[in-house]
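Re: your question about Amino acid transporter transmembrane domain-containing protein

S., sorry for the slow reply, the queue was backed up all week. Below is exactly what I fed in.
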Amino acid sequence: MSLEKKQEEGALSPTTSNVGQVTDAYAHDAVFGEITEDGPNYRNVGWLGTAVLMMKTQIGLGVLSLPVAFDALGIVPGVIVLCVIAGITTWSDYIIGVFKIRHREVYGIDDVGELLFGKPGRIILGGAFILWWMFTAGSGMLGISIGLNAVSDHATCTAAYVAVAFVVAFVLGSIQTLGRISWIAWVGLTCILTSILIVTVAVGLQDRPASAPKDGVWVSDYKIASDASFSSAISAVTTIVFAYAGTPAFFSIASEMRDPRHYNRSLMLCQSVVTVFYIVVGVVIYYYCGSYVSSPALGSAGPTVKKVSYGFALPGLIASTLLFVHITGKYMFVRILQGSRHLVANTMIHWSVWLGCTFGTSIVAYIIASAIPVFSDLVSLVGALLGTPMCFQPMAGMWLYDNWSRPKRDWKWTAMVCWCGFVILAGTFLMIAGTYGSVISIIDDYKESGGSAAWSCADNSS
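Result:
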């Protein structure tokens, strides 16, 4: 698309010459500065590509643990919790789009923190953002290692597969712009949807799930409502939060849209597809597998289907992980070089800083994946400790920031203030209680393994 077309769509602010004519040599962006033809174009993602990137930040890791979450909660409470979290996060995502239009200079959630709480807010939310995506990237690398083990029948040490995942994530995550990555997101989304649908159909056709007893008549022991312990139930809730926790990435994605005014169109498509898919997959797989559902869920339908589904899932897991690495590295990269010509020019400093950021993100994620190698526990911990404060409280604060001083305070304003208060309280409760439940679960798993599971060669796909 030509620069003039982008300017007409509101994507870029044109730079004018002394005689008031628009120059087509460069344009100014509130985040990236002067975007020229001599460097990467950071504003080149269309609305459909944006929707796919949004979906890929969500559909990937979280969906693989939804049937296990339903096992802890029961089908009816599980669906209710999922719909409630879908509603809250969709509202949060919508607020990001509104806030981005009103504050074009906002690139990440740390900018929101500074607007709300000054420098301490920037430091706290910026640090939480980095940790969140590093942990999520670690979850992605762990998922890739599980897939490689499943496809290869554990042909080599699991620690080696995690290392392979690290290399792939670093190399592909270092592609400069989301516009250039969007085609990988398309491939990854198609593959992960296909793999999960294969398992969903297979569990309905099979005699019994792979881990169920082989003798006797099999009847699924699914529960309409479960009597799980508090720690198990709250961990399941935060697992569902994790499935919707692409929210903090939407700041970065919106910043690279050609026209941010199309953000809501992308958001509605994303959340509609994600929610319907989550409900269908979670309910069907849990209904047929009951308490014998696997985590990740792709192992629930026996060894043959497991290989096939993971074969399709691997590109999707790779796409998710490289996105997590890219978004985290891009955030640090922008913060380091913002205001410098090196941000948008292909200089030695540009490439050194960029590759340093993506490598640093990848190596930390690799350490996390190797040190906490239990997939469901890692997903739950990340969702509780970092996912909720990234998806709930800041967005309520954003609405209050823009509307608290509004002169006309009618019943709608009062209702929205109450809603924001509820979102803040709910997010805080889930963060504290969910972290507690996840830590208890991790401690129990380490008691079973004797603490020897870190950097293990054991097969993690069984």
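The longest strand covers residues 22-29. The two ends are 48 Å apart (CA to CA).

Happy to talk it through on Thursday.
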